[in-house]
Amino acid sequence: MKTAQINEIFDSIQGEGPYIGYRQLFIRFCGCNINCAYCDTEFKTGSNYTTEELLKKIKTFDLESIHSISLTGGEPLVHFEFLKEFLPRINKKIYLETNGTMEHALEEIIENIDIISMDFKIDSSSKIGDIFMRHEDFIKTARKYEKEIFAKIVFDEKIQDFEINESIRLAEKYKVPLILQPRMEGNNIAVSTEFIEKTMKKFTARYLDTRLIGQVHKFFNIR
Predict the structure, then answer these.
(1) What is the pTM of this model?
(2) For residue 124, what are the domain limits?
(3) pLDDT of residue 101
(4) How far apart (Å, rounded) are the C-alpha atoms in residues 24 and 28?
(5) 154 φ, ψ to 5°?
(6) From CA 73, how far away is CA 83, in angstroms rounded?
(7) d(Cα 3, Cα 18) in Å, to the nearest integer?
């Protein structure tokens, strides 16, 4: 039986993207395949769970009152072998939060995924290089299986025009909604209002399916 290291399991609201405000059960997996400069999430330590142990744990929550189960991290797809055992036994919508770089792992579990919230990791804020080709491969996989997918872009005042251009190119090509998310420092927005407005106008001038949505759970001071 497979095991996975999990940092925490908790009941809260979704604070990012188009499903903002929906109540979810969050399963935060440890481990990630990349290291973003702005990451403020604790996912390096946790407890090991077998499939049976995790199923037993989530049944202690009021699953009837939640919209979906969010697989978050870290990067949940690091644990795709575990998820292949776990997800078919869940009778609830599955919402995958991912960095959008592990398309082969996605394909292994995609039949049990309902909503994909992926990040466009732009180098100006994440400091991991240009990975738009990996993002395109990931989106192709999601679209092949006709899954709902949207892309978040964490940005600050260092965002480059080529990053905007590449994000729009992929979004237009694959009909992916874009969510602009100003970078945060703790519970404070780290981007000026003027720059946020300027960036939003650059995107919407070329791609209307763009929304500006901050991390609302931080405004409420809840996780």
Answers:
(1) 0.93
(2) 12-22+76-219
(3) 94
(4) 12
(5) -80, 125
(6) 13
(7) 31
At 116-126, the pLDDT tens digits run 999 998 887 66
Q: Is the dihedral of CA 193, 199, 205, 209 positive or negative?
A: negative
Work out how many domains the chain is built from and give that number.
Answer: 1
64 domain-assigned: no
Which of these, 128, 171, 188, lies nearest to 180 by C-alpha position? Answer: 171
Would you put residue 74 in left (φ > 0), alpha (ψ -120 to 50) or beta?
left
Q: Is residue 54 part of a domain?
A: no
Query: pLDDT digits over 25-49, tens only?
Result: 999 999 988 876 666 666 678 899 9
Strand order in the sheet with 68-72: 47-50, 3-13, 23-29, 68-72, 94-98, 115-119, 148-155, 178-182, 210-212
pLDDT beyond 80 at 196: yes
Beta strands in the chain (DSSP E): 3-13, 23-29, 47-50, 68-72, 94-98, 115-119, 148-155, 178-182, 184-185, 188-189, 210-212
Structural domain contains residue 212: yes
Rg of the Cα atoms in the chain: 17
Is residue 208 assigned to a domain? Answer: yes
Displacement of CA 152 from its chain's centroid (Å): 7
178 contacts 209 by C-beta, under 8 angstroms = yes
20, 42 in Cβ contact below 8 A? no
- Which residue shows structure tokens 């039986």? 1
CATH number, domain with residue 178: 3.80.30.10
> Which of 97, 104, 123, 110 is CA-nearest to residue 41?
97
